[in-house]
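This section describes the prediction task in plain terms. A model, or a person checking by hand, is given the sequence of a single protein chain and must write out its three-dimensional structure as a string of tokens. No templates, partner chains or ligands are provided. The sample shown here is typical of the held-out split.
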Amino acid sequence: MRRSIRINLFIAVIGAILLAACGGAATPTAENVPEATVPPLSPDYLGGGMLYDNWMSALGVDAPAGDHPLWKTQTTNTRTGKDTFRCKECHGWDYKGVDGVYASGSHKTGFPGLMGAAAMSAGDLLAWMDGTNNPDHDFSVYFDDTQLAMVVDFLQKGLTDTSPYINADKTANGDAAHGKELYTNTCQSCHEEDGRAYNFGSEDEPEVVGTIAADNPWEFFHKVSYGQPGANMPSALKNTWTLQDIADLLAYAKSLPTE
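The expected answer:
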């Protein structure tokens, strides 16, 4: 029986693919996720990937009041509140910021990408995270030292160039047959055979696995890689999947129903 679970109530397991769709992602809101239900984060780049996605849901904390201090420096993205504090909202699911998918559209901010971070030292990256280089980008207000180190580790090790796996037209370079095997063995128990067990959107605008894979394959790739903040979704990378495995899963997920 198909279950429709609204974003602000979704705290259940979302399997090995949440798969991606940016602003409307199926992330539980911090206000509605009891702290006891928030799984512990891996204390490395894997946990940093969840913090990059939605650190409020990942930590089970309330969103800061108002908009991020840097939000006023751009005028193209009209989102407000907690979305403005998500790293992905500024730098994109492809991590390329203004040079990537967010170069245009409603998520455009003009903020830079992060793909050069791997060549930077941990100290230099920390200086960008803790407000040393820019007081308006001070996340030490929200993260402890371990969490800051997790994000730094993610910036150094976790920024995957997905261009070999996802094309500009959103098609995937993957083996859908192998992706089906992965889905059946890992994801189907939560998402059901057709990927419609969970509605990450609304009744009027549903978002299911197939919708996300079709509309925002870059978010799909990130969430399969790292998991869903605030939920017990397994990280494919932690489970030793290759990047090609994730691309294969994406190729198959694109065949699933979109509503």
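For orientation: Residues 1-36 have pLDDT under 50 and may be disordered.
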